[in-house]
Amino acid sequence: xxxxxxxxxxxxxxxxxxxxxxxxxxLIERLSPLETAGPQDLTFLSHPKYLSQLARSGAGxxxxxxxxxxxxxxxxxxxxxxxxxxxxxxxxQLWKRAQAPAAAAQIHPSACIDPGAMLAPGxxxxxxxxxxxxxxxxxxxxxxxxxxxGRDAVVGAQTRLSARxxxxxxxxxxxRCIVHPxxxxxxDGFGFAPHGGQWVKIxxxxxxxxxxxxxxGANTCIDRGALNDTVIEDGxxxxxxxxxxHNVRVGAHSAMAGCAGVxxxxxxxxxxxxxxGAIVLGHLRLADGVHVSAASTVTRSLLKPGxxxxxxxxxxxxxxxxxxxxxxxxxxxxxxxxxxxxxxxxLQILQATSExxx
Length: 358
Description:
alpha/beta; UDP N-Acetylglucosamine Acyltransferase, domain 1
């Protein structure tokens, strides 16, 4: 597949106006990283620390910020965009559309669709899909093979469910969402009451409400609420293997990396990020604009925006064991230090008193 450089810039002009400097008829065959790009490749440079790679790059054209315009021109053709990383994201979308045009809507004969379900025009349904009574599938939605859409569940227009996605009874997902293989939306939350040495199940009577333009990674699980709903607001991005427990609320345009976990009834604000493997404990609140580093454990509410980190640095095992043993003694050391400070203060007072006497 090839696209003219001028056609690429024109195709993205509405969302990201940019200036093309160089041969507009240059044919671009692929998108590539800066260090490996060849003469028919288009790449990008978004961070100044990679500027040294620019002169050595063999790319046919490089997307750069205005501050790097002159350096890029010395090398060859370039596209000057206000935000090169955003521009490159749009380029990948353009490339995918050009490589794999949308297939015509069809319903596979093996799909099991209850007569009480409602499918809007242009819906695609893959092999062995099960759609229960009362389910509503919006216009242009795509339901991948082996998906299960529960009773009264709703899939918004232009949303794409990959293979083996489960959307349980009464759960809703908005428009233009992407759900990757194996995700489960609406399984029971983990709720049990201890009684007589046993665990008594608390039925999970809420659902899951997911907004528009949300992306959910492979094998991610979002549990239904116990009484109220679990809520994922517009624009949220969840990586693979993320766990969202019952009654969690995730604010608009927040993002969580792989293996992050949020315990029940926690509230994540808008425009937050949670790094890979990080954990947010239950009933806590993260304000808008909070960023949690990878592998951190959030044990208290974070009510001011900013970057937070809570992890014990990796070390060789012998040193780690010594440090861990020291940590166990911190409370005792703290008490000893307080007593020493108190005794020192009393001594200073006695000395000052004795010096004042004639």
